[in-house]
Amino acid sequence: MQATEPSRDWHADPYAIEYPESAPFWEAAEAGTLLLPQCTQCGRCHWHPRAFCPLCGAADPQWRSASGQGEVFSYSIARTEEPYVVAYVKLNEGPLMLTNIVDCDPGAVRIGQSVTARFRRTPQGRLLPVFVPAPCVKA
Q1: In this predicted model, what pLDDT tens digit does every residue of 72-106 receive, in sequence order?
Q2: I want to staple 73 with a disulfide (CB 3.0 to 4.6 A). Which of 23, 90, 116, 122 is the partner?
Q3: Separation of alpha carbons 55 and 52, rounded Å
Q4: What's the pLDDT tens digit per position in 15-61?
Q5: What single-letter DSSP state applies at residue 52?
Q6: Cα–Cα distance between 121 and 35 in angstroms, integer?
Q7: Nearest CA-CA partner of 26 in 43, 42, 48
Q8: Nearest-5° Cα angle at 132, 25 to 49
């Protein structure tokens, strides 16, 4: 996974400041790594970061590197002047992540399509995971 724009300080991003439990995620994103919280009790990964596992209730999930691979679970095309795809991607590790499908024709996106994570800089400064369809993946 690679960042697509030059680095800025994500520590000043209002979203990252508001949710300090997500700091390891944003720190890893700066290095082009996708992290997920994984429960130390049930072993399952989840998304969004929180202080407990939403699947079994255990405290203190740990962060683990994710593959960055998944498939389109559901999507919608926002038909603006420049159309874009909002999608739920089911990560290989299990959780659903709300994201964008980028670098392809929005009309070509399909449910079940394999996708790979990339990172794009937000206007606020943090790198956010987005996904590209597998046929569009560049080495």
Answers
A1: 999 999 999 999 999 999 999 999 999 999 999 99
A2: 90
A3: 9
A4: 777 888 888 999 999 999 999 999 999 999 999 888 899 999 999 89
A5: B
A6: 17
A7: 48
A8: 20
Please enumerate in sequence order all residues whose Cβ is within 8 A of that of 46, keeping only pairs 6 or more positions apart, or say none: 36, 37, 38, 39, 53, 54, 55, 61, 94, 95
Residue 107 is encoded by which pair of tokens?
């009309």
For residue 93, which of 65, 56, 131 has the smallest C-alpha distance? 65
| Residues near 81 by beta carbon (within 8 Å), at least 6 away in sequence | none
C-alpha distances (whole Å) from 131 to each of 12, 49, 53, 75, 107 are 25, 19, 25, 12, 15
The pTM of this model reads 0.85
Question: Cα separation of 59 and 69, whole Å?
Answer: 27
**Radius of gyration of the chain from its Cα atoms, rounded to whole angstroms:** 15
